[in-house]
Amino acid sequence: MEDKELLNGIIEGKKEASYAMVHQYSGMVFRLAMSFVNNREDAEDISQEVFMDAFANISRFRHTSSLSTWLYRISINKSINFNKKKKQYAFLQPFVNSSHEKNIDIITEKNNFEISPEDILVLAEKNKILYSRINKLPKNQKIAFTLNKIDGMSYKEISEIMSVSVASVESLIHRAKMELQSSLLKLFR
To answer: What is residue 77's DSSP assignment?
Structure first.
């Protein structure tokens, strides 16, 4: 279904249109949430919130961007808010590192290959280190870097989502790469 057809169907209360929108965009929303929270269950919860928010506010969609761009913006905001809340209440929970092993499932499902137990441990540790460094980037650098490197979006698409120029996106991604490189080099020296 085309975006306009989806939107009209949802506004008219057609369940098929709602299902079609979720089917069409759920993977994109989940991958983006996953890249921010690095936990499958949390990413699923965020994805549900994104679609609930989108359905509740569908009449406010201004058609100045594509439906996917609008959903990306909602996803980014929900993911950032989730991380803020998580940090606020982190003192209530003991540190548990179970999410990284679960994320290996996503890598193996996506690439459909076998992986040894040793490789799983190494990959989980690398994943943990990389995501911890990405999460320490300034907000806009993190968003631009994540959309480009993890979600594979072009600079133009990112500029539309973030409402900044393409040059700003280039700069944000460049600074993010430099900070990550510096941070990782310090870690492994």
So the answer is: H
Global pTM?
0.64
- Please enumerate, as own/partner, the contacts of 174-181 that have beta carbons within 8 Å and a separation of 24 or more: 175/141, 176/137, 176/141, 176/142, 176/144, 176/145, 177/145, 179/137, 179/141, 180/133, 180/134, 180/137, 180/145
* pLDDT tens figures, 153-169: 899 999 998 999 999 99
Residues 6+ apart with CB under 8 A from 173: 141, 144, 145, 148, 149, 155
Work out the number of other CB atoms within 10 angstroms of the CB of residue 100. Answer: 19
Rounded to 5 degrees, what angle do the CA atoms 116, 117, 120 make? 90
- Domains, the chain: 1-93 (1.10.1740.10)
